[in-house]
Each structure stands twice: as structure tokens, then as C-alpha cells.
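User: Before I run my own analysis I want an independent prediction to cross-check against. Here's the chain; please return only the C-alpha cells and, at the end, one sentence I can use as a sanity check.
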Amino acid sequence: MDFNFTEEQDMVRDGLSRMVREQYDWETRRKAIESDAGWRPEVWAQLAELGILGMPFSEDDGGFGGGAIDSMVIMEEFGKGLVVEPFVPTVVCAGGFLKHAGTDAQKEDHLAAIIGGERIFAFAYAEPRGRYDYADIATAAKKDGDTYTLNGHKAVVIGAPWASHLVVTARTSGSGRDRDGISVFIVEKAADGVVTRDYETVDGRRASEVYFENVSVAADALIGEEGKALPLIELVTDEAIAAQCAEACGAMKVAHTMTVEYSRQRKQFGVPIGKFQVLQHRMVDMYTAYEQSVSLTYLATLKLDAGETERKRAVSAAKVGVGQAARLIGQEAVQIHGGNGVTDEYAIGHYFKRLTIFDHEFGNVDHHLKRHVKLS
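Assistant: C-alpha cells:
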């Protein structure tokens, strides 16, 4: 199997790496996430100008002919800088729904705006009682003529404070955890009846609780076939998991590097703590976990085009392995940094927070371990 990247992918990696180093240094990021906006729209515009937002889409859809591997390359570099701009909600999730099941009119309207950086989406799928089950949906969409009326509550919608549109999962028929009866809609966040409560997440991003109170959407806002959207949701979320695994790999690499450098500078008993063999062993364990995570992420990304069972198994294996590694590397990095590791002024604590939260998005280690076993 060829694991070499194309010349174009290497160019994207080099360009993004330079951009993150020069424009996403630690202090600049810190000021951005502490601002009222919580992000920098000019960075999003620059990503669009560089073609980053169009990389994963085919040329027929107005993109640059890339795919999941391109998203992996992009997300790894974003992870190194703890980039908060909503690439996964907008490009991977909303873009994924549109490219897999969107009508020509939907693609022409929304994909072009996503690629151009003019429209930002958030993926509203999680609910307070859902516990990682995409079929456990209380939000309802009732059809009345040529419109649907949405009512419900979506929790921890990442990127929603910045979004112009939402991709919303809702039940159009059935009840409980029925796999049938689930649909996906595009909803303007400014629509009457959409109420949001915005807040900052532990890892420095922004999210919202989103409430739908008799929100009316046109029938052409439906993505794909009514009531048959669960397999599509699982496909798109698997793509999002693979992308976030790449992000975690980027963050783990930086966390490990920072820890090794700190161990060379911090002295105890007159010598750098990196001279202590027990700490050397722990940092080797961190590096091993990182390398294993990279391999799992590559495999999951390459299996996204495989059959459903094979894809799910590879993605769940990656989520378990990367989730465990993220916890190990984050905790070891903080402990080796000592008291400095938990101060807001030191970057390592923020890498720890991001790596910790990674485990809770789109299913944690326990959830994906059970899914993997079930599919075996």
C-alpha cells in the first residue's frame, strides 16, 4: 500500500504549516479565543482564498478534486496549532452531507458558499439524552404541505455561534431509537423560532445549545430521502471522526515535542529532569502512542470508501486507539511539566484540554470499543 502523499498534498501541508507557525502562534490564539468573537474571521477568509475549504470536494462540485486524505492533511496541521476555526462542522460535516446526498440545487447554493468562505455551518445532531446514539432523537419534524415544522433541543453544537446555517437531524416518523424515520435538514440560524445559548467550551472553542420552537423549513431543505438518513449520518460522522483523529495526532505531536524540550530545560537536583530514566521511559511511551495513532488514522481514512462494516470497524478502532493515546499523552505532558502544566499561561495545558475533549466527540472510547466488538 502506498502511503506517500501527492505533490499537491505536500504543498498544502507545507503552506498550512507555515501559516499556523506565523499566524497562529500561542499568544495570538490566546487573544483570539478570549475575544468576544472567539475566533478570527480573517483566518477563515484566508483559508478560503488559499483553496483549503475547497480541497476535499470534487471538481464537479466546485472543489479541487481532493477527498478524505486531503482533510486528514489539513486537520493534522490544524491540530498542531489548536486551530478553532470550524473546518469539521462546515467542510467535513455539512460539506459531507451535501456531496453525498445533496441535490444539484443544494450543492450549487451551499457548496459554492462553503468553498468561498461565505457560509459557515454547524452540525446539530447531539441531544441531552442521546448518549452517542444518532438514532435516539427527540427533535421532531412534522410535514405540512410543502414545509416541515421543527421542534426540539440540540446540545453542544460546536461552531454554532459563528454559523449562518445549521445541519439538523430530526425524526420525521417512528419513535425511540428506531433506525428508520430520521431525516436531515438545512436550517438558517436566523430563521424564526431558532433560539441559541452560546458559550465557550473547555478547549477554547465556541458552542451553543440550540432550541427549535415551531421552526418552519421548506421541503427543499431536506437532504436525501425522508426518514432514511441514518446510514448517511453514520457515514458523515465517520468522516468527521477520521478528520478529528488527524487533528489529535497533530496536537499529540506538539504536546510530546513541548514536553521533551521542557525536560531538557527544567532542572532538579542540578540536572535537567530529562536525564531521569523514569521520565525518559514515559516520554518514549508518549512517542510510541503517537506513532500508533498516526497509523490508525491513516488506516481509518483509507477505509472511508470501503464497505459499511469495514469502514465502521476501522474508524472505531482509530477512535479507540487515538482516544487512549490522547489521554495518555495529554496527562503525561501535564504531569512532566509539573505545576506549570495547569496554568493558563502555558500552552501545554490547552493541548491537554483539547486532547481530553477529543474523546467525547462523536462517541468516546467505550462507545467505539463496543461498536467495534459488535461489528467483529
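Sanity check: The longest strand covers residues 206-218.
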